[in-house]
Amino acid sequence: MDLDATVPLSERAEWSDVVPLTQNDGPNPVVQIAYKEEFRETMDYFRAIYSSDERSPRALRLTEEALRLNSGNYTVWHFRRLVLEALNQDLYEELKFIERIAQDNSKNYQLWHHRRWVAEKLGPDVAGKELDFTRRVLSLDAKHYHAWSHRQWALRALGGWETELDYCHKLLEADVFNNSAWNQRYYVITRSPSLGGLEAMRESEVSYTVKAILANPENESSWSYLKALYKDDTKSCISDPSVSSVCLSVLSRTDCFHRFALSTLLDLLCEGLRPTNEHRDSVKALATEEADTNLANLVCTILGRVDPIRANYWAWRKTKITVAM
Amino acid sequence: MSSTSVITASVLYSLLFLISQRNTKSNEYGTGPIVRTAIPKDVRPAGSQFPQNPLAKRKGSTLERKVKFLFGLDRGFSSRSKLMSSTSSSKMAPLVADKHSRYILMAEKKKESFESVVMDHLRMNGAYWGLTTLDLLEKLGSVSEDEVVSWLMTCQHESGGFAGNTGHDPHILYTLSAVQILALFDKLNILDVEKVSTYVAGLQNENGSFSGDMWGEIDTRFSYIAIYCLSILKCLGKINVEKAVDYIMSCKNLDGGFGCTPGGESHAGQIFCCVGALAITGNLHRVDKDVLGWWLCERQKECGGLNGRPEKDPDVCYSWWVLSSLIMIDRVHWIDKAKLVKFILACQDLDNGGISDRPNDAVDIFHTYFGVAGLSLLEYPGVKAIDPAYALPVDVINRIIFTK
User: Name one GO molecular function term (chain B) (predicted).
Assistant: First the structure.
């Protein structure tokens, strides 16, 4: 840790040979800026070493100071990479540096790209570290888009698939509405080299998802996931009793969010599901409208009423109903 | 298509993610706790491994301190506490266009502003947001074109790419913003088209994807940017369009949406980029319009605002990305447009101008641009028409398409 860190650069002996370069906004700058002093000074010195292309240890330390002040500055990250390469720095230490910066602000592309650049150089040895790092970030924000993107890359490039499904489950236990975790679950079952693929996993995943739906029928992600399990195979979807019966279970409850169960039932009917009397009865029980002999029609009517903000969509769905029931 | 917004989006995404995930402790309208449909406790099935407590599941993220860091400011959770009354009155207020123009012009000239300093490296994006908004409000003439253009040209590198500001490295993001700004001023003719297009085309990878710059970050945002940029410069032939499109399609998810890379979660911003790129290259037929249209219209919350992914808070900028995508695939009638207009208008600072991510939060240029652009797509009176794919005023795009 640089003991001089709080002393202005202009007063540090180490930097006495450098002439800082001020921001040149042009002869008639569009934007005159009065910079915060510390920031201004740090960037002036950065510009100096950047322009002289000084790839030294003090340059490395300076990029750290600049990034602490503004981790979004992509030029500083670029230059840091050049210095790291020139000095052949220990990239394991760099991983720690990145994590320190991430603690203040992990929501920028530059930081994540830098992390990937470092991890790529270190290779499969750091698979565990990358999964741990993203886990820590996700523990603060379980929907962090960059973290998920990095995690997916790490699994692909470095490995570590074995525990991923379990990790998804833990996140879903904490928040079953976490769409990112459901997306990751799908990622794992379709791409993991050790699981056998979507069809092999379908039965257990359907069972898992049905439980989630029954616990929180208002969860868009779980319904979406259920449908995704039958990718390109609507025949299996409509013939799987679990799917039609989860709709029925939800629809049969009173005081329950029915919208996704209704829309899923509608999808099944349009794909050729033959509704049972129980299906008909549960839908009719929700209808305030006159009973329609066409069940799909009735479902659309109900949806138009309970989901008025999307009334146009449900009206359009009605026009698409071709099945006679 | 807001390629510009795409470019700025990359930077914006940093802001976007921060802002969209802000822990506002407010509901979608900015007041009161978030309340989910109440489910009676006895509905839980026996043996369920998913504990049932809807309110407990509604966790926001703790980004307030991160936002504070980024801007060096208190981002308005406490600073706008005259909120309740201003919320209810701003629901009814029209677009205060003059105040927004003044806000942008002031922001450009503001002396203080750690915010300006922190955004120094992405000034090119900020300029695009501000200038496009001014043009949409018919106030572009208030800016000195010569000053902007001469500064802009100092940002171009030997490679042909543009940087976010003088003294920074080139990147595809800022290259597009630069091209868009020149398009606004009808000054594309000053560009060395060969140079710029070579830079952009050079960023295409073997698999059809695009990198942001020499350091190799890959994202469908960059696919959109590259396609947009070369289309405006009329040299799309410099890239392998088929492979570019194939790569974008490899990022399509089963919900009809698109992510940043194959398998990446569907996200409104990425969807906008992919749909925009497909629109520009004449490949909209490859989109599952009905499936995607439903996913997009599901983004509309009760308050009328749109979110970017399931279970996230609505945000004015998502309103742009979702709305423009819906328009490109001819499904915009699936949302309640009037409610969305109300939501955007409720995000205005009626006193000082500017638009925020959601009602009663602090304003910024990014959200001001997206709010005005969104209102343009919703045909709000007094706002020029904007092209949903190119995110530039329609008259600007027409000028480009109908010349040469």
Answer: Rab geranylgeranyltransferase activity
